[in-house]
Amino acid sequence: MLQSEIMPIDMKVLTEQIYQYKKGVRRLSLYTFNKKYQKFATNRLQRQNIKYIIQPVNNTSINLFFGKQECLDAIAPMLDRPLCKLSPEEDFILGTLLGYDICMQCERYCLLKNKQYDI
């Protein structure tokens, strides 16, 4: 077997995110990738006892959220629809839990909130 079959190039980002999670840099991560690697990714998380949620994106891609159970519990009700359909408040919560810059999240929230009221 070739090395790329053992560790697909697409999964190197996932490996880095798992490393950051295990080091405490992140409490929640999101990785969007081709669903053909779903088994590889979920097996890796299961072996390390990391909780996760899978959200289909389209016919070929999935979102893989993984991290602390409390964070997953907080976002689970939001994942019944595409991320672009989140309310400004849900978008803010998700971005904050993912560790995005808080000031940028505030700017994004205000932009989305103002856009929501545009006629």
Write a concise synopsis of the structure shown.
The protein is built from 6 helices and 3 strands. It is of the alpha+beta class and 119 residues long.
* Rg, alpha carbons: 16 Å
Largest sheet: 3 strands, antiparallel
Q: Could you tell me the mean pLDDT?
A: 92
Content-based structural category: alpha+beta
Number of DSSP-assigned strands: 3
Strand content: 15-25%
User: End-to-end distance, in Å?
Assistant: 58 Å
Q: Helix and strand succession?
A: HHEHEEHHH
Poorly predicted spans: none
Q: Which features characterize this protein?
A:
119 residues; 6 helices; three-stranded antiparallel beta sheet
What does this structure look like?
- With 119 residues, the chain is α+β, with helices and mostly antiparallel strands.
- It is 48% helix and 17% strand.
- It has six helices and three strands, in the order ααβαββααα.
- The protein has a three-stranded antiparallel β-sheet with strand order 1-3-2.
- A hairpin with a 4-residue loop joins strand 2 and strand 3.
- Helix 5 packs antiparallel against helix 6.
- The longest helix is centred in the last third of the chain and has 15 residues.
